[in-house]
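Technical annex, item 7. During the second reporting period the consortium partners agreed on a shared format for inverse folding records so that results from different sites could be compared directly. Each record opens with the tokenized structure and is followed by the designed sequence. A conforming record, contributed by the partner at site C, is shown below for reference.
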């Protein structure tokens, strides 16, 4: 499989090159040259397949012959080492729980898959290690740290803003050791992000083989389509149209859902639910793509002013706004509305939604008014414990600490404090 740059000013590359480079040389995102729908028989018999078998069928064309089938199957098995329950929250509305992985956020799947692909590509290169450099506002860093822990040939350097991530998130970043290093930046998330961007452009760091691990990387982005197949498998017997609502920030998750639809998965409609960072909802209203600086909210993993994957979505619809709007809606919600929804869901159904899932729920409820006979699914992208500072006071409850979190919370934090790009460079060496 070849991948082209969406800026159309860089050579086409293989899957391996796209994974190692992350971004094309013209700064465009990579996109697969050909997308071949899966056979109807696959969907007819999907309920007889395991999650691993489904994932293998969905992803294999994107990897091609660059990873042997047996190895790809092992990578998938290690990636999907936990459950993806579909929980009925109220009549006709389901929560697709993506938070049962090692760091209790949906990014575990993409991070685990990407790390193992990189390890495979590096297996014969004793000398040239890759360094994954990533800036995090909280959730990404933990998933990347855990996903890459102990993976041969890959060093991971995570930059996070000092004092701006939750205690649990900080422990997830700073306690693992081995090939994972945490840099505590004196600044805000944007400062971390700026340093990372600068490092990628810095010729003097070329020997470090820097790569990114956010959803611009195809190996982190594409495996996210698995979730939609798993939910379909569970709900198929009800024989109703499916509407999915994704709490969206960089739009990687929902973009992977649209890819699943391109492969033939029968999805009636997508909702991209956002917080007040509403660049996409505004675009759907007035046709103007006008990104704004991000605003801080209680659903902070979605505080993105210029969603990087939106360009991939536009590519899939060939910039045909009419066709796009038929399949896709996007609605934005304030923190007050989000808190109100969390309370209402808990009161009416006893279900604990964290702020991102609650935003997804709100967008879903709105869209379902237009789809009489449909079933709605919102993606619950993090465990409530990861946002306990919001969830506990809002619902007046105390959450038990899950084992995944207990295992890091008492470990000692190890980080290196930096306050300038020069210090980052010295650290990388
Ligand atoms: C990253 C993240 C999102 C947003 O996902 P995108 O793919 O960037 O749209 C939503 N919820 C949580 C908890 C996240 O960590």
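Designed sequence (site C submission):
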């Amino acid at each position: 499989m070849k991948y082209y740059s969406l800026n159309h000013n860089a050579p086409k590359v293989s899957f391996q090159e796209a994974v190692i480079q992350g971004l094309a040389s013209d700064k465009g995102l990579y996109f697969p040259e050909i997308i071949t729908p899966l056979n109807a028989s696959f969907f007819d018999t999907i309920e007889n397949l395991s999650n691993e078998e489904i994932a293998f069928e969905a992803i294999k064309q994107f990897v091609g012959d660059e990873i042997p089938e047996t190895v790809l199957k092992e990578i998938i098995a290690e990636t999907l080492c936990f459950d993806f329950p579909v929980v009925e929250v109220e009549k006709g509305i389901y929560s697709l729980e993506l938070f049962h992985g090692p760091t209790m956020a949906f990014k575990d799947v993409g991070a685990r898959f990407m790390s193992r692909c990189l390890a495979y590509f590096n297996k014969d290169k004793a000398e040239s290690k890759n360094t994954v450099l990533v800036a995090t506002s909280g959730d990404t860093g933990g998933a990347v740290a855990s996903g890459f822990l102990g993976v041969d040939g890959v060093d991971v350097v995570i930059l996070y803003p000092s004092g701006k991530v939750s205690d649990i998130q900080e422990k997830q970043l700073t306690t693992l050791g081995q090939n994972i290093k945490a840099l505590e930046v004196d600044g805000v998330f944007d400062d971390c992000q700026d340093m990372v961007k600068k490092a990628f452009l810095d010729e003097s760091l070329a020997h470090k083989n820097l790569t990114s691990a956010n959803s611009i990387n195809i190996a982190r982005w594409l495996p996210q389509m698995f979730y939609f197949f798993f939910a379909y498998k569970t709900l198929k017997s009800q024989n109703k149209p499916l509407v999915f609502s994704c709490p969206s920030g960089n739009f990687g998750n929902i973009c992977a859902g649209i890819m699943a639809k391109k492969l033939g998965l029968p999805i009636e409609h997508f909702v991209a639910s956002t917080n007040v960072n509403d660049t996409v909802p505004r675009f759907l209203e007035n046709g103007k793509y006008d990104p704004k600086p991000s605003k801080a909210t209680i659903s902070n993993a979605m505080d993105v002013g210029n969603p990087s994957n939106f360009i991939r979505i536009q590519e899939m619809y060939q910039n045909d706004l009419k066709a796009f709007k038929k399949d896709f809606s996007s609605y934005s919600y304030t923190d007050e509305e989000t808190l109100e929804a969390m309370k209402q869901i808990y009161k009416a159904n006893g279900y604990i939604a964290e702020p991102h899932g609650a935003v997804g729920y709100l967008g879903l409820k709105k869209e379902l008014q237009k789809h009489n006979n449909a079933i709605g699914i919102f993606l619950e992208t993090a465990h409530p414990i990861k946002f306990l500072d919001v969830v506990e006071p809002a619902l007046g409850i105390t959450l038990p600490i899950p084992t995944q979190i207990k295992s890091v919370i008492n470990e000692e934090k190890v980080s290196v404090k930096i306050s300038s790009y020069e210090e980052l460079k010295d650290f990388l060496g």
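Residues 107-122 form the longest helix (16 residues). DSSP finds 19 helices and 14 strands in the chain. All partners now use this format for quarterly exchanges.
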